[in-house]
UniProtKB/TrEMBL annotation:
Database matches in InterPro entries: Nucleotide-diphossugar_trans, UDP-sugar_pyrophosphorylase, UDPGP_fam
SUPFAM superfamilies for the chain: Nucleotide-diphospho-sugar transferases
PANTHER family, A to Z: LD24639P (PTHR11952:SF2), UDP- GLUCOSE PYROPHOSPHORYLASE (PTHR11952)
Leading EC class: transferase
Keywords carried by this UniProt record: Nucleotidyltransferase, Transferase
Organism in which the protein naturally occurs: Fuerstiella marisgermanici
Protein name: Putative uridylyltransferase
Family of the protein in this entry: Belongs to the UDPGP type 1 family.
Secretion signal, residue range per the UniProt entry: none
GO terms of molecular function: uridylyltransferase activity
Gene3D superfamilies the record matches: Spore Coat Polysaccharide Biosynthesis Protein SpsA, Chain A (3.90.550.10)
Listed EC numbers: 2.7.7.-
Amino acid sequence: MRVGGNVIGKLLRCAALRFYFHHVNAFILSNCEMTSTKEQLLERLKPFGQQHLLNWWDELSADQQNALAERIQQIDFALIEKIRQAAGNKEAADGAADSAARIESAAAPRSVVLQPTTDAERNQQQNDTALGEQLLADGKVAVITVAGGQGSRLGFDAPKGMFPIGPVTDRTLFQIFAEQIAARKKRHGGQIPWLIMTSAATHQPTVDFFQQQNHFGLDHATIHFFQQGSLPAVDAKTGKVLMADKASICLSPDGHGGLVTALESSGLLKQLADAGVEQIFYHQVDNPTVIMCDPALIGVHRRRESQLTTNVVKKSSPTEKMGVLVDVNGRLEIIEYSELTEEQAAKEDESGQWIFWAGNTAIHVFARTFFEELASDGCRLELHVANKKVAHIDQHGQPVEPESPNANKFERFIFDALPLAKNALIVEGNRDREFNPVKNADGSDSPATSRAALNRIGREWLAKAGHNIPDGTNVEISPLIALDEDELATKLSDGTVSVSDLTDAD
Ligand code: UD1
């Protein structure tokens, strides 16, 4: 379901003043609308039929009343209504046909920078790498880690970045990223600001964890935690905002596309500009084998003057749960895995190649100025409506645990920026090396597969340096020891590191 971004843009422009709230920043209100008495709140809610939010007002403590009033004032009920209507109309009228036509006319992306196979391509990649390294040395690159997701598929209670994944030491995902950044700084010399986007659920535990870990040795002034917004869930049938309990509204993160608004309203986008940062390396918290600040990717992105570059890999099977990059009528887009039937996902072109092959690894490079464009006039990314199961209380205050989707949630996707980008670029990555995410508790993309990949990569690097490790012995190479096989080989040969430091062999 797609909703016109311009409608949303207009609504956002109508708002007189944008606030950045610590917990909720995505909906907008004007200063003069700040009210707090029950009567004033009722007046605000009545035109939208949302008075039920105050059903238990008189039973609440003063603190609870204040918190609820603040939340209510942060919600743009008119916007919710518009989005729901637009989505509903689209679905009723031509939504299914639209979506089918879009998938039908999708073609494999026309222009992809593939993995190099010729000397000329390898030379070009080396030149791009040198360019990326220079940008890193000049302090022109920052990193954004999106870590606001609730990781429900993994079934891990803490933020996903705290998940232990190292095959020998149980290093966490956050530690691996931190060590990669530290090693890049050391190698190239420039500063690399690290921006970590959290959500209401993941913010405090993430900040606390970094403090406990002494920011993994990084200068804490270069790490910036900022919180994405939250949006309310509404009853799918009635559009009424759902209450989590008598004092609070059901809220959920506004999607990784919430990054655009959160970056701007936190002041970080301006800070990056002031610091002379030009390129932003973006990655998800779930992939420990991401090549952080990949100089080759940053270099080709810069050389081609791309506003948004996306790393893709060939899907392992047509139904693998990855978004796919496609051309739709000349426009570069991502079609999410949830939009394709099994049959569509396996569709081939005349040469027998999958049309939907180019899986989005969610490793991107953004030009900083592109974020500024996206954030201008409110966020230019669409809001999507998703039908989800949301536990809530009913009108009698009784808890409801739905068995099927009962609610609309709203979120933005960062990859909706692709069709808006000038010179958007797709670059094929090395799947085995770069894409081994932790998503599910078991099976594919699980801790077991991701840990096995780290182990395999370590063994391959050691084998290239002439050390074959027996089966059953685990290998883990800290990025502080080596960022790549060449660095490892050098350190092994000059005696800085010994094989026994890298395995769990007795
Ligand atoms: C995502 C992509 C998919 C891609 C795949 C690669 C979406 C909708 N799809 O799928 O195209 O092929 O990764 O691994 O993203 N996050 C936030 N805030 C939010 C929601 C998510 O920060 O409100 C972060 C999560 O912490 C995580 C990332 O975004 O780092 C991905 O979220 P997730 O919902 O797990 O996406 P996938 O379904 O795995």
